[in-house]
Amino acid sequence: MKKYDKEIKLTEKLKNAIRNIKNHRLVITKEHLEETIRHITQAEKISLFANNDLIKKFGESKNVYFNLYLKQKEELKNYDFNNFLDDLIGFEKGFSAGTNSFDSYLFCVNKF
Question: To which H or E segment does residue 87 belong?
Answer without folding.
Answer: helix 81-89
